[in-house]
Specification:
Layout: E1 5-14, E2 17-27, E3 32-36, H1 43-50, E4 58-63, E5 66-67, H2 73-79, E6 81-84, H3 96-105, H4 111-120, H5 123-139, H6 155-167, E7 173-177, H7 185-200, E8 204-208, H8 212-218, E9 221-226, E10 229-234, H9 236-241, H10 243-250, H11 252-257, H12 260-266
Parallel strand pairs: 3-8, 3-9, 6-7, 7-8
Antiparallel strand pairs: 1-2, 1-4, 4-5, 9-10
Helix pairs in contact: 3-5, 3-6, 5-6, 7-8, 8-12
This protein binds adenosine-5'-triphosphate.
Adenosine-5'-triphosphate binds next to strand 2 and helix 1.
Length: about 270
């Protein structure tokens, strides 16, 4: 069976920095794959490459068996790939449902462009997009906040709206770059539960997340990066138990004696 996503021997060089150095990986349909690695190991760069915001220096990308290494970033969404960002990127003077509605139609646009774009849609199309947005808000449990403005919502719910906006384009693959950054433990658990529900719906996901315990709880597989190299892949436990991963996080000597990584998971 062909994997949903294939990344083959991807290199990304920023001047002298080798942010990715020959990374190959695959994601099967229905998988929830976690990417771990210390700061600066190349996680965000890999997400950038997969979503075509970052041009690889070399390497191949395939989605459903077809190369998309030359597809421009603005067309990636129409292939069935969506993402959320490390920081909240909602438009503050549009309501929650309007923010999500935009996700159902267009990606990465400025506010004036969005307002003009919405005005130009026929009533029928606006109605269709609104119905999709309302369906997605219901899916993430946020129907009651649909008419609120993002600034009126707690931070955890704003991040949930971001996920809803990405879902509105009905992606087959969703990439989440630290969706729980800045959240407390209860909020992190709720987002973890939501991602598990989306997995049960059949959505394939790639997750960058520093909370290793959460990753262990929800991911079906994991890979680890260090200095732009893929150093381990397997189940989340196999990956965090890999001596190279422990060394990457802790340094060689400490890794031989102590594992806060495993402690975090076991707690
Ligand atoms: N646009 C850029 N120009 C130059 N260097 C970059 C650029 N983007 C990333 N890098 C470098 O590439 C390497 C990988 O960065 P990347 O952001 O992918 O790591 P990361 O694992 O996501 O880190 P973090 O966990 O801190 O977000 C780092 O050394 C970083 O400084």
């Amino acid at each position: 069976m062909t994997a949903l996503l294939e990344v083959e021997d991807v290199h990304v060089h920023f001047g002298g920095v080798r942010a990715l150095d020959g990374v190959s990986m695959q994601v099967e349909e229905g998988e929830l794959l976690g990417i771990i690695g210390p700061n600066g190991s190349g996680k965000s760069t890999l997400v950038g490459v997969i979503t075509r915001l970052t041009d690889p220096t070399s390497g191949e990308l395939r989605f459903r068996g077809r190369s998309y290494a030359s597809t421009p970033a603005h067309r990636v969404n129409s292939l069935g790939i969506a993402r959320t960002y490390q920081s909240v990127r909602l438009l503050p003077d549009l309501t929650v449902v309007e923010n999500v509605l935009i996700g159902a139609a267009v990606t990465a646009v400025s506010r004036p462009a969005v307002v003009n774009w919405l005005r130009l849609r026929s009533r029928g199309e606006q109605g269709r997009l609104r119905a999709v947005a309302e369906e997605v808000l219901e899916r993430v449990g946020m129907t009651s906040s649909s008419k609120a403005y993002p600034g009126e919502l707690p931070y955890g719910l704003q991040r949930r709206v971001e996920i809803a906006r990405a879902l509105a384009s009905k992606p087959a693959l969703l990439l989440l770059d630290e969706p729980t950054a800045g959240m407390n433990q209860a909020e992190r658990r709720e987002i973890g539960d939501l991602l598990l529900e989306l997995k049960a719906d059949g959505l394939t996901q790639i997750l960058i997340e520093h909370d290793l315990a959460m990753k262990h709880r929800i991911c079906s597989s994991a890979i680890a990066l260090d200095f732009g190299h893929l150093i381990a892949s397997g189940t989340p436990r196999e990956v965090v138990e890999d001596p190279r991963v422990r060394e990457a996080y802790l340094g060689k000597q400490a890794a031989q004696n102590y594992s806060p990584v495993l402690e975090a998971i076991d707690s």
